[in-house]
Amino acid sequence: MKLKWSKKLTLVISSIIAVFSLLGNLFLINKVKDYQEKETFKVINVFDGDTFYLENQQKVRLLNCDAPELKYCGGEEAKKRLEELILGKKVKVEWVTTDKFGRSIALVYQGKNYINKIMVKEGWVFYEGRKFEGSDEFVQLTRDAREQGKGIYQPRCYQKENPTNPKCSIAGNLSRNTGEKLYHFPGCSNYVRIIVEKFMGDDWFCTEEEAQKAGYTKSKNCYDKSFQGD
């Protein structure tokens, strides 16, 4: 009798475990389905060329993409292009991380379009250089966009000399890494390598006083030299 009762008890316990296991699997399946459904959102507003808002008011930034501020060269065009690609449309968002401003950083897809890649390929954002799967391709796309003068790399935004007034050849550069504002002029040791990226806020100046008034400091590579304008 004890043996039979033990077998019945074991069978009951096994049945209960099987039921809970089935219910658990169904729960997980539903959660995965729910998560997958919530990956897709409608874009209700585009802030600039790399940031936008979803219908749930979540702020999203394109991973490894940095568009110009709207006030800088190419800023409005970059925003317009992103609007053409995603505004009012459903996008699939692959979350990666969150930045210090509380924005969700993500890879974004609209249909078959890989939005991060398109914005880099067309030159409307510059690649920030963080490593991720496929980043080598982004490096090459950035190089191609720069060489072909696309987007923010077009001559009016990316300059090795002042196209409007060659005599005003003091180049003011804003460091992406430190935010430091330095100016350089002919005679400074690294001047030939300087590029004025107007999409970053860089600019040309006619006098050192003018550059200093705009918040720039003379580069150490200029030593004790002074700008000798024509």
Protein traits:
230 residues; OB fold (Dihydrolipoamide Acetyltransferase, E2P); five-stranded mixed β-barrel; four-stranded mixed sheet
CATH topology name of the largest domain: OB fold (Dihydrolipoamide Acetyltransferase, E2P)
- Low-confidence parts: 18-38
What is the CATH level 1 assignment of the largest domain? Mainly Beta
Task: Tell me the span between the first and last alpha carbons.
Answer: 113 Å
Main beta sheet:
5 strands, mixed, barrel
Give the helix level as a range of percent.
25-40%
The structural class is alpha+beta
Strand order of the largest sheet: 1-2-3-6-5
Number of strands: 14
Please characterize this protein's 3D structure.
Helix content is 33%, strand content 24%. It has 230 residues and is α+β, with helices and mostly antiparallel strands. The chain has two domains: 113 residues, Beta Barrel (OB fold (Dihydrolipoamide Acetyltransferase, E2P)), CATH 2.40.50; 64 residues. A hairpin with a 4-residue loop joins strand 1 and strand 2. About 9% of the residues have low confidence.
What is the element layout, followed by pairings?
Layout: H1 2-38, E1 40-46, E2 51-54, E3 59-62, E4 65-66, H2 75-86, E5 90-98, E6 104-110, E7 113-114, H3 115-121, E8 126-127, H4 135-147, E9 158-159, E10 170-174, E11 181-184, E12 196-197, E13 203-205, H5 208-213, E14 217-218
Parallel strand pairs: 3-6, 11-14
Antiparallel strand pairs: 1-2, 1-5, 2-3, 4-8, 5-6, 6-7, 9-12, 10-11, 10-13
